[in-house]
């Protein structure tokens, strides 16, 4: 920049000299000096900007060099620094007298009584989700091992105890219990949901249909039903808590589930407010979308349909009168109507086959009693807990981890306090192909069973 500035100044000086030598008028002389003054001001401004840019680049360089030096020092120190107990950050919790310290001494019966699963099922779950709930060791503390994390979550699912009580029993912090329950819930949904909770297909579908046929109902791939799960109004302050009040006057979310002949869940949908009808919940579910998006309106393969008196009877679900009548969803007749003997028999047979839904809900809530208590968890997280419990229920049923009758002890008292709302029949059905299918099944039930 310096040579260029000197050149411009010398050029201006030469111009002025030539003008003087040529005896140019005073007016032109004034214009020349004004031009010189402007050029000088521009040169000064350019120098100021250059100095500011030079200082800015210097400051950036110094900051980067300082950050590099600090990171290098930190990296070197982290290599040579040994693990230390930071009493300011970590609370020393004795593990000698708490519940977790004596868990290894439990026999199989005591283990199952505490965690609602056998030791073998617990080890299987740990193998499946252990890597997802494992935490990295740091210089500040030793992480809680995956085994204890899973045990904390299962104990909370089974008991729904206060976080403070669980923290004392397992020797961890109160906030840690809350975080562990959420982490284990997410791990179960990510690792196990798709594997253990899906609608039947192929050979499994044939087995389910054969089992329901033994229950005297043909062409059935499962029964659908709903139940209410209590939630605390404290956790609904931002979600219009009045919407969650059901007809019994307590706050709840709705669990819609499809159940097979073994009382295992094949499809679940949870989270809608307790004031919502069963038909509305169904219409918003993925199950409804999957069925209605099919070109033929069937939920299961069309090649498994049966032709009776010119009417195609598809493989379908069955449910109570709170659901709408669909080609893929049959329901019983309303007892308020004047029914023929065939309609009475159809209603009785369908209702008997639907009893697997009540069995599944009873075992689900008896094993995982967090679904019987008003938990201070927001509705979205409680929905995840409900689905995770359904997955755990399926794992226990599939592995033959039996449900103990004493787990239902006390649920009667709880149910008397939080009685399930009465079923509200859906009255929006009109004469449609689904009605033709139901009528054909009704008057040809024996023929279908013999098919």
UniProtKB/TrEMBL annotation:
Gene Ontology terms: cellular component: nucleus
Domain of life, source organism: Eukaryota
Domain DDE Tnp4: 225-394
Main location: nucleus
Localization in the cell: Nucleus
Family per record: Belongs to the HARBI1 family.
Name of the protein described by the UniProt record: DDE Tnp4 domain-containing protein
Lineage: Eukaryota, Metazoa, Chordata, Craniata, Vertebrata
